[in-house]
Amino acid sequence: MLPAMKAEPRSSSPARAPRAPRRRPVKPGPVKRRALGRMKKILGLLQDGKYPNCATVAAELEISARTVARDLDCMRDDLELPIEYDKQRHGYYLTAPVAGLPIVPVSSRELFAVCVAHKALEHYRGTALEKPLELAFKRFADRLDDDERFTLQSLDEVLSLRPFAPEDADLKLFEQVTGALTDRLALRFHYRKPGQRHAEPRRVHPYHLFEFSHRWYLLAHDLQRRALRTFVLGRMRDVVVTRDKFQIPPGFNPRQHFAASLGIMSGQGDYHVVIEMDPWLTDILRGRRWHPSQQIKEFPDGRSQLRLRLSGLEEIEQYILSWGAHATVLAPPELRQRLLSTTRELARRYTHPAPAPA
Fold this sequence. Notes:
The chain is built from eleven helices and eleven strands. It has 358 residues and is of the alpha+beta class. The protein has four domains: 33-94, Orthogonal Bundle (Arc Repressor Mutant, subunit A); 108-158, no CATH class; 171-249, SH3 type barrels (Roll), CATH 2.30.30; 271-349. The strands form three sheets. A five-stranded antiparallel β-sheet has the order 6-5-4-3-7, covered by helices on one side. A four-stranded antiparallel β-sheet has the order 9-10-8-11.
């Protein structure tokens, strides 16, 4: 028969729960994602004032009590959260308010992605979006530990982006559109297409906001035309967020919408594009991914053929014109005709001497 254990006198003052001494000091480091998820749930129980202990947390999260004890030690010692143990209530509690876990788990690959995101801010340097983007990045960087900040700074020194002709973004317009997207509210605005002199009234259900080639676009359902349309934010005027709620159709996926597009212009056709490229252009474009449907075949003499399946021809036409005589379109006939019309007009303009500048 085991000897009777002497009961400890209860105390009104909280005390730290006993734990086994560590053999060596452990340097605080990044927390794994799975452990971070558990710690967030434990912190939620502490914030609710439920006085959880290792047994109750283990039962709720379906893990071992030893794992809960390790998580609590990490939260209290490494993350320096104000956690104490109350012997009377047989559970843990917070001695001061805590907003959240003071840590962001970042791997080396994620740090590289963050650095690229920071460099991408250069696209909006001097625009209305520069300040809010910088503040958002600073909030994230302030939560990294010293080692992660050093790695981020090192990557920042060896990586840069050179934006070409970024668009000036209207911060108020940006906030209106993002607010309507979040709250699922219809938008009213006037919109002018390229080349048009007068803007037309539009009423849309905004589905998706995206950036392409340093310009922001809105994918929305045009109520009058009863179809999805893509709008350039910079051409939207007199924007009004209405109180009309809507629901995005189930199964809507912006990636699928642009699956047959080279960029952001989607059409109703089904074109099998075949482009022959000379050795120079083959070397220049080697390794570039233009479209999921692309197939590239290289020949012994250095030439190559690029095959694409697209729903429209406007965007690929612009690329081919920029490649000049290094590219020859073999198919479809519609694309060859478009290029022929354009090059004839260019030849007409440049055949005669240029007029004097105004």
